[in-house]
Design brief:
The complex is a heterodimer. By secondary structure, chain A is mostly beta strands. Chain A contains four helices and 21 strands. Chain B is globular, with a radius of gyration of 18 Å. Chain B has helices at about 1-25, 40-50, 130-135, 145-150, 155-160, 265-270; strands at about 55-65, 70-85, 85-95, 105-110, 115-120, 125-130, 160-170, 170-180, 190-195, 200-210, 215-225, 230-240, 245-255. Classes of the chains: A mainly beta, B alpha+beta.
């Protein structure tokens, strides 16, 4: 889900406003209404529990204004058949204006940068979250960004290149930090024999203008390869975290971790991405380097985050054989640590990780598609494997069956995920 | 994103084939300019190339795939093409069905002779480069491949041609050519063409596999002459003899109006 933070009232307000504005023209050829209704069921066969049982609706309304622009609004709804609450949220909602050599886009938007499959270190504007087993199995491992309120301008050069500038008016953090820090506090507490460890913060990013993020990107062709160079200045999606110490409740002379404190911090992100072909194979690379505004609290012992900058690199290729089998492979280097969590062991150093990601797709005949996804940690040998079969029940109606499994030793970072990642899934999608 | 990933493969491969198919068969085919009966096989091939691969314009087509069990799928596409000094730029945009609508596929022939290909998927929100190997695939539901259809334009480069006795095919006086690949290892051992003498449109093309068996048959029908005197087939069928499937392209609308250059840019893909 891209937009779980927006209020339901706002979703309805935008929907009503849009149709009020364009209702009389809704039947016009320039207005398009599209959507997807999907039912998804996921069952953890190790945990013996449902991990997903919901109906979702994606709806978008788009009105083209000839060659002058476009209006777009999207909605995302989810009705879980559990005790969770139903949701209806605004997704992207923006206006495009095409003036001369410049394309403008203003509104809630997802700005998708990068060239790699699924994991894009240069895709830095929208919070993308961490990789989860459920995403790998149910959504193919791709990390959606969450829409942010932004102004984007792209100036297209006669040479075919372009320059893009983005200003983001609001800071939207990535989801899941609260749960991760709570889990870290729980582990610490358990290690302290049950002594309480609370999580404090983070405070919201101040709304005094300093919340504004901005980014620029230049692109062009270099030797028949698309090359993108980018820079981002803004806030890290996840708050930095560190331990704070307090007196031991049973031994006033001693100190123990009593609190995990967290605070958002600003970052610089530099990126380069390429995409091209090498003979008949597709090849791509992405490199990013992140530099943090330093926090003193992270210099001492017990930091869950680091002040040190880090690099992320993805290099991959794909090839389609004569029988239609497509194979894709990527090497992912994450200098900031695990892809699964932005936090490190508070008493250890950041441990860069290297992964291999592979995808295979094959269609034995029209309407039958097989896809296999594999993510392996080269350091600890852990593997998450997922497979999916899609059958076209009829045009624009699909049945999707999936299965995933973790293969890992006790020391692998994937090992704790077994209960969540060992699952089977089924779904039906109707597109209209 | 799951649907997107499936769509990515389908969209790209289908697009590649359709682009080529429509380029060859839909866009303007000019009347022959040489005296009939005196042409060699190579000259007929040259005429075929010189007519089938010229021109710029737009075509809206319905593409229907039918498998051996009679199950049908229909796609509606709009196709733009413009000749350039280096070859041609082509853009294909899916209009329907809903799961692929909005997908765009762009090919640009650059000055080095390479064809650059990008696929834009609305759900992904950015373009993706497509490699040549993907264009050789048998794409979603269709019986076309980029190579098979694209090779109509490179017959004289890749094949030795022999002119057989003329025939009357479906009531149309036709040249008959038999082509044999110059290099081993290709997908086909031979190709036979029936080319209308008046329009130089290939009315029937038979593709023989390495074992010498007939594998596919391409048929162009419903030829119509435009106001500019060009011939356009409005019904194109590729039949796979080994699988029993077929793909039918019906031309719904065409235009010879020049297509603006900006259609063939990443900027247009992203809009």
């Amino acid at each position: 889900m891209r937009a779980v933070r927006s209020g339901r009232w706002f979703a309805w307000a935008v929907l009503i406003a849009f149709f009020t504005a364009f209702g009389p023209a809704a039947a016009a050829a320039e207005t398009e209404v599209r959507g997807t209704v999907a039912y998804r069921l996921g069952y953890g066969y190790d945990a013996e529990e449902l991990v997903e049982n919901s109906l979702s609706l994606d709806l978008s309304v788009q009105r083209r204004l000839g060659f002058s622009g476009k209006l777009y609004v999207g909605f995302e709804g989810r009705i879980p058949f559990t005790d969770e609450e139903a949701e209806l949220n605004v997704g992207e909602a923006y206006a495009d204006l095409y003036v001369g050599a410049t394309d403008w886009r203003i509104g809630r938007q997802v700005i998708s940068w990068g060239t790699a499959d699924g994991f894009n270190p240069t895709n830095v504007i929208n919070p993308r979250g961490t990789l989860t087993p459920a995403a790998l199995t149910l959504a193919g491992g791709a990390l959606d960004g969450e829409p942010v309120l932004a102004l984007q301008a792209s100036y297209y050069l006669a040479s075919g290149g372009s320059l893009t500038a983005v200003a983001v008016g609001e800071f939207v953090p990535a989801e899941g930090a609260d749960e991760m820090l709570a889990a870290a506090a729980g582990r610490l507490s358990a290690g302290l024999g049950g002594l309480p460890v609370e999580v404090a913060g983070p405070d919201p990013v101040p709304a005094d203008g300093s919340q504004v993020e901005w980014a620029v990107r230049a692109e062009g062709l270099l030797g028949n390869h698309n090359v993108y160079v980018s820079y981002f200045r803004g806030w890290d999606d996840y708050p930095a975290a560190w331990l704070e110490w307090g007196p031991h409740p049973l031994d006033p002379a001693g100190f123990v971790p009593s609190k995990i404190a967290a605070s958002y911090r600003r970052v610089h992100k530099f990126g380069v991405a390429t995409a091209g072909t090498l003979k008949d194979a597709g090849v791509w690379t992405e490199l990013s380097y992140t530099v943090f505004d330093e926090l003193e609290e992270l210099d001492g012992a017990g930091a869950l985050s680091s002040n040190a900058g880090y690099a992320e690199l993805v290099a991959g290729a794909d090839y389609t054989f004569a029988n239609g089998l497509m194979l894709s492979g990527q090497v992912i280097y994450s200098g900031g640590g695990s892809l699964l969590s932005p936090y490190k062991d508070p008493f250890g150093d950041v441990e860069p990780q290297t992964y291999f990601a592979g995808i295979a797709r094959y269609s034995p005949e029209p309407g039958h598609d097989f896809e296999g996804i594999l993510l392996a940690n080269a350091g600890d040998g852990g593997v998450i494997a997922a497979g999916r079969y899609t059958y076209d029940i009829r045009q624009a109606a699909k049945l999707i069956l999936g299965i995933s499994r973790v293969f890992s030793g006790a020391g692998s970072e994937f090992h704790p995920l077994k209960s969540m990642a060992n699952l089977i899934s089924a779904g039906v999608e109707l597109h209209f | 994103m799951a649907a997107e990933r499936m769509t990515r493969r389908r969209g790209g491969l289908l697009a590649a084939g359709v682009l080529a198919a429509v380029a060859v068969l839909v866009l303007a085919v000019a009347p022959g300019v040489r005296a009939a009966g005196e042409l060699t096989a190579e000259e007929i091939l040259d005429e075929l190339e010189g007519t089938a691969f010229v021109g710029s314009g737009r075509a809206t087509v319905e593409l229907v795939t039918v498998n051996a069990r009679g199950q049908e799928r229909s796609n509606r596409l709009v196709f733009y093409r413009k000749e350039t000094a280096h070859g041609a730029n082509q853009l294909l945009e899916y209009l329907a069905p809903a799961d692929v609508a909005g997908t765009k596929f762009l090919t640009v022939d650059d000055e080095s002779g390479e064809t650059l290909m990008w696929l834009y998927l609305p759900a992904l929100g950015r373009e993706r480069r497509i490699a040549g190997s993907a264009a050789q695939d048998s794409f979603m539901g269709t019986d076309f491949t980029f190579e098979e259809i694209g090779s109509l334009g490179t017959f004289s480069k890749d094949y030795d041609a022999e002119r057989l006795a003329d025939e009357v095919y479906q009531g149309v006086d036709s040249y008959v050519l038999r082509l044999v690949p110059r290099e081993a290892g290709g997908k086909y051992s031979a190709v036979t063409l029936w080319v209308a003498k008046e329009s130089f449109v290939p009315l029937r093309v038979e593709f023989y596999n390495r074992q010498g068996s007939l594998e596919k048959v391409l048929i162009n029908e419903d030829l119509r002459q435009t106001a500019q005197g060009r011939w356009q087939p409005h019904l194109i069928t590729m039949r796979n003899e080994s699988t029993g499937s077929r793909t039918v392209i019906r031309v719904l609308e065409t235009s010879d109006e020049p297509v603006p250059d900006e259609y063939f840019t990443l900027r247009y893909l992203r809009r």
